[in-house]
């Protein structure tokens, strides 16, 4: 991962997306990042005459134009220059394609307050963006303050999590942050001597994973501490984030691609659905598959 220099921020004009933009602009101003703000006009697939269709398209563009105007006001108030883009199409597809075209280092999105995971999954733009993106995605819940002074990295030791670890280490080093590394041991083994042995080996494996990352952090001058928890993964990750007062949570998308993966009850999906702090989803390993 290189430095975060080019950020893409999709906005809808809703309160949660503008809140996320405000947090991203604050972050970008301190790092001199280039910010592109994108608003997507939904496509119209009905059957209207050319005159009526033109009027409808103008009407459909109005929310996006208003959102971009508000984004410009927010940037001007900080003395920042931003690029504003208005595109038409399926929102998550346009976001993914625009991030690729602009060579964005990160897609940063707001997420609304959610009360049910099922509602989040069905047609949800942030999750579908994560499922298809070739770029890392940062999700900022409404009301959360974006910061990197205390980072929690959740890892399972996979190669996908290796990239997430590299990303978290770099940001921790740049922000002089405390890095916490968490492995949640899967102890769903039979109640037998063999099962107990397997559980013990799983815990030991977890310790080895977090200790290896902590050792690498020490070599890079980053303060790091390892944690091994037991239980349901998403629940333990979120509980640990609260207990440690983490400001940002790093997880990896496991690269299976598409919304189908997100419907399989992945840990990443559950964490994104319930997180109270910004969640950085590392997905770039897909580019090297």
UniProtKB/TrEMBL annotation:
<dbReference type="InterPro" id="IPR006016">
    <property type="entry name" value="UspA"/>
</dbReference>
<comment type="similarity">
    <text>Belongs to the universal stress protein A family.</text>
</comment>
<protein>
    <submittedName>
        <fullName>UspA domain protein</fullName>
    </submittedName>
</protein>
<dbReference type="InterPro" id="IPR014729">
    <property type="entry name" value="Rossmann-like_a/b/a_fold"/>
</dbReference>
<dbReference type="Pfam" id="PF00582">
    <property type="entry name" value="Usp"/>
</dbReference>
<feature type="domain" description="UspA">
    <location>
        <begin position="5"/>
        <end position="141"/>
    </location>
</feature>
<dbReference type="InterPro" id="IPR006015">
    <property type="entry name" value="Universal_stress_UspA"/>
</dbReference>
<feature type="domain" description="UspA">
    <location>
        <begin position="148"/>
        <end position="281"/>
    </location>
</feature>
């Amino acid at each position: 991962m290189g430095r975060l220099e080019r950020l893409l921020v999709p906005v809808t004009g809703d309160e949660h997306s503008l809140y996320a933009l405000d947090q991203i602009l604050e972050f970008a101003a301190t790092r001199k990042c280039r910010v592109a703000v994108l608003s997507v006009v939904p496509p119209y697939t009905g059957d209207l005459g050319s005159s009526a269709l033109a009027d409808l398209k103008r009407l459909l563009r109005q929310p996006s134009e208003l959102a971009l105007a508000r984004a410009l006001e927010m940037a001007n108030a900080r003395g920042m220059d931003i690029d504003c883009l208005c595109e038409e199409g399926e929102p998550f597809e346009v976001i993914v394609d625009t991030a690729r075209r602009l060579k964005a280092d990160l897609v940063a999105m707001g997420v609304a307050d959610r009360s049910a995971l099922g509602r989040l999954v069905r047609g949800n733009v942030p999750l579908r963006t994560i499922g298809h993106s070739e770029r890392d995605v940062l999700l900022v819940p409404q009301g959360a303050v974006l910061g990197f002074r205390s980072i929690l990295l959740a890892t399972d030791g996979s190669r996908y999590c290796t990239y997430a670890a590299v990303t978290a280490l770099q940001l921790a080093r740049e922000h002089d942050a405390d890095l916490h590394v968490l492995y949640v041991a899967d102890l769903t083994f039979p109640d037998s001597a063999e099962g107990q042995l397997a559980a013990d080996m799983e815990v030991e494996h977890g310790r080895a994973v977090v200790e290896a990352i902590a050792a690498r952090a020490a070599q890079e001058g980053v303060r790091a501490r390892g944690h091994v928890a037991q239980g349901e993964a998403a629940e333990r990750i979120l509980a640990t984030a609260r207990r440690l007062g983490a400001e940002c949570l790093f997880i990896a998308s496991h690269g299976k691609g598409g919304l189908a993966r997100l419907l399989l009850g992945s840990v990443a999906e559950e964490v994104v659905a319930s997180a109270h702090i910004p969640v950085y989803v590392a997905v770039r390993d897909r580019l090297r598959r």
